[in-house]
TrEMBL record:
Reaction(s) catalysed (UniProt annotation): O-phospho-L-threonyl-[protein] + H2O = L-threonyl-[protein] + phosphate; O-phospho-L-seryl-[protein] + H2O = L-seryl-[protein] + phosphate
Family recorded in the similarity comment: Belongs to the PP2C family.
Species assigned in the record: Leersia perrieri
Ranges of Polar residues composition bias in the record: 264-286
Protein name according to UniProt: protein-serine/threonine phosphatase
Keyword Manganese: yes
Its EC number(s): 3.1.3.16
Region entry Disordered, spans: 264-295
Keywords (A to Z) from UniProt: Hydrolase, Magnesium, Manganese, Metal-binding, Protein phosphatase
Cofactor: Mg(2+); Mn(2+)
Enzyme class: hydrolase
All residue ranges annotated as the PPM-type phosphatase domain in the record: 23-295
InterPro entries the record matches: PP2C, PP2C_BS, PPM-type-like_dom_sf, PPM-type_phosphatase-like_dom
Keyword Endoplasmic reticulum: no
Length: 295
């Protein structure tokens, strides 16, 4: 049946967490896909006043998604721009840093290790190993300080991943994305995009790819995680004939428990809030009960 299973795997890896400011729920499901290639990060305490959430959809394999889930937030945290309070620049540099790390000799060994560990298990066991609840995925001690330079015979992995991350730090919300994983904020029951798809079906993105020298090929009742689970069930296709609803699925739902001040900077990395929200809405506070959806 190609990349699809004869019956979908509907077991879910779900998690809930909260602190005095935020409450989140998440759920992942393999669905019709032959393997689970999604990964995620959900950290309420990236540091004392910062939360980090990320969804990574592996394309052509799972290694890059797992690598980003393990290392992207660490690179944001250790970047000089982060220390200076420039979250957008810190996230942008961390995105590029992932490519640099994976092309190096140490990155090559790390990808091999991830592959070996992943291949020992399948389905939900795999998800549990690389969930941020695991002991190594939130380990801040390994800052990748020692590197051996590029690997002479390794240009990087031949699979890839989308990335959509949201950082909440004091009165700032910063969203950054690469690929077509999305972030949406619900305000008074209305959805507003905080990310912009990078898909070759979109004319502007198609032109950007070609101008850059690239090519396009093949074109629980009271918990937030229970809401995520219901959405995954609703999105699951009844068969693989139509294509939609057949992929791996991951969703994170974040609820703001306390209002954030009127000076909130809700923007995407490299994008002003006016590009992603209706005019006149960018200076509004994030009110108690508003929700951030990532998928």
């Amino acid at each position: 049946m190609g990349v699809y299973l004869s019956t979908p795997k509907t077991e879910k890896l779900s998690e809930d967490g909260e602190n005095d400011k935020l409450k989140f729920g998440l759920s992942s499901m393999q669905g019709w896909r032959a393997t689970m290639e999604d990964a995620h990060t959900a950290l309420l305490d990236l540091d004392n006043d910062t939360a980090f959430f990320g969804v990574f959809d592996g394309h052509g394999g799972k290694l890059v998604a797992k690598f980003c889930a393990k290392y992207l937030h660490r690179e944001v945290l250790r970047n000089e721009a982060y220390s200076a309070g420039d979250l957008g620049t810190a996230v942008q540099k961390a995105f590029f840093r992932m490519d640099e790390m994976m092309r190096g000799q140490r990155g090559w060994r790390e990808l091999q290790a991830l592959g070996d560990k992943i291949n020992q298990f399948t389905g939900m066991i795999e998800g549990l190993i690389w969930s941020p609840r695991g002991s190594d995925s939130n380990d801040q001690h390994d800052d990748w300080a020692f590197e051996e330079g590029p690997h002479s015979d390794f240009a990087g992995p031949n699979c890839g991943s989308t990335a959509c991350v949201a950082i909440v730090k004091n009165n700032q919300l910063v969203v950054a994305n690469a690929g077509d994983s999305r972030c949406v904020i619900s305000r008074n029951g209305q959805a507003y995009n905080l990310s912009r798809d990078h898909k070759p079906e979109l004319e502007a993105e198609r032109e950007r790819i070609l101008k850059a020298g690239g090519y396009i090929q093949m074109g629980r009742e009271s918990s937030l995680s229970a809401v995520c689970e219901r959405v995954l069930d609703r999105c699951l296709a009844p068969s693989t004939l139509g294509g939609e609803g057949c992929d791996n699925m991951t969703m994170i739902l974040v609820q703001f428990k306390k209002p954030i001040s009127q000076n909130t900077n809700a923007s995407t990395a490299g994008q002003s809030a006016s590009d992603t929200q209706p005019a006149g809405d960018t200076q509004q506070s994030l009110d108690c009960g508003e929700q951030l959806v990532m998928f």
